[in-house]
Amino acid sequence: MKVNLRDPNKIMKLSRLGSFHQSKLSFLRSFLDEFKDWEYKRDLFSLDELGYGTAVYSFKKKDRIYSLVCFANKIDDEERSDRVIATKWDAAFTLHDGVPSKKDIERLRNEVPKQEVGRLSYKELTLSRANKSVRVFNHVVESLSNGHQPDLNLLEKVGYLYRTTAVYGSGKFGLADRFRIKDREEINGPFRLEMMLVYLVRQFTFDQVNHVAKSKNPKTAVELDPKICKKLGIGNSTGLGMAPFIVNHPTLLNNWIMSREIALKKIREIKKISSNEIQVFKDSLRKSIKNITSWNSESEYQKKKINYLLEDVQKFLKFIETKFNFEIDYPFNEIYLWIEEKTCDECIEYIASMMLEPFDYIVKPLVNQMSSEEDKYFTIPTDRNVEDLRNIIEKRYPDILKINFTKKENNKNFWFISKNKEEPRYADRFEETGSNLEQPLAIARDIKKLHSQLMVSKNSLTIDKFLAQNNDLRHVVRRAFIIEKFPYSEIQDNTIGKNVIPIDMLRLKLSFFGALKFDPRSDKWLRICMFQGAPLPNELKNFDQQWIYNS
Fold this sequence. Notes:
Layout: H1 8-11, H2 14-17, H3 27-35, E1 39-47, E2 53-61, E3 64-72, E4 91-97, H4 102-111, E5 124-132, H5 134-145, H6 152-158, E6 160-168, H7 192-216, H8 226-231, E7 233-238, H9 242-248, H10 250-268, H11 275-293, H12 300-322, H13 331-342, H14 345-354, H15 360-367, H16 386-396, E8 413-417, E9 424-428, H17 443-455, H18 463-469, H19 474-485, H20 503-513, E10 516-520, E11 526-530
Parallel strand pairs: 6-7
Antiparallel strand pairs: 1-2, 2-3, 3-4, 4-5, 5-6, 7-11, 8-9, 10-11
Helix pairs in contact: 3-7, 5-7, 10-15, 11-12, 12-14, 16-17, 16-19
């Protein structure tokens, strides 16, 4: 039986993309799988009694070594901010290529805490900073120093000791350009070094809190229970800065989603499923209920989504345990058709992700297809003609062409870069000034404008001549030729309409990172937790591949 890939015009709607969940394709999970056989080591741990100082952690295999260099610094409470414009943080980190010398560490000590203001070298691969959850960190220190474990309810509610505010790579601030390392097999998957940094930072937070507790009360202090450590991840506050990334990297977006869609298609085409594969799927599903029921959010929008998800997952569980026969031909295709008909978008994508769990042999080859050499697709085929381009647009953007941008509600908002905050922002075009600074992120509107111009141009007119007269449309001409080859490269929605929920764009990207328990703080930013439930470094050589459902 042949199953078609899901329709991009349906899947690439923001309401559906904003319902995506982590899967075996997510970057933090593929990172752990890739580095499970590497030698982990804490090479340096030089902190004073208050936890300030320097630490170095490494992964090594053969002649390749990656080292996380950590700098923990004292800052005042009023200096602690998660905003991009902050200048001080509780800790700053860089991932160094190889073993840092004493000279390297001294150089980095002067530069890394400055973050964007500092200057790194080609020896450094990623850069980040993080702040304590002061309330949680202090509670853990106090508990451990007094000889007992901290309050689990508090820890599970927050989920982390530290939260990162940015993770940079690929040539920023002097970091190594991607071309220097892109051929290394172990980092072929997207954001793999960024995931390594966050994972090692997680271990640093455990070591630091144990050290401070021991320094405070050497005679009675105990270490944080490893079982509790596993329940904690690294927090993150993510704002609108992620939204332009999704728009500005169409081939990368396509490759992420295409990999997931191919995996789902291949699984639906499997005629017979083994008893072990059935068990992995069922076990993951049952375990995951705890993740849903412990998913805390103050957002009414998210609370509704969580409730619908829980209701539908429980309905689905009852269906497969009482009515469904896995011995039929193509069982996962039947399952998919059932959830598409009977459940909400949130549940459809939740179950779709979980369907990948038993099938390593399908998923693993796809992981290495999720990167993109984007420059290869940047050139516009100027020898093509207007008719070619119009046909592409009519085939790939059917719903966008139906939008009437003369209506106020469809042209309501605009994207811009805040001068004071240096961050992407989203504003009402009719109530706020600054639309003259609008960023080119209204792709739907610009595609519609391009189509209108094509309709009044000669079919035989070549694209170079068309662009000579319509240079302001060059960016969407390029995108249209990209989507011809990459069907999942474009959000099939109006990103400036009155009904858009910007966090849907953030959640899409974060789901591929592997984030759990999205907690919107508004429609423009949210908090997440990464690596919650993940194996500790000393467990990597043999860990439960479905660990994420124990988180």
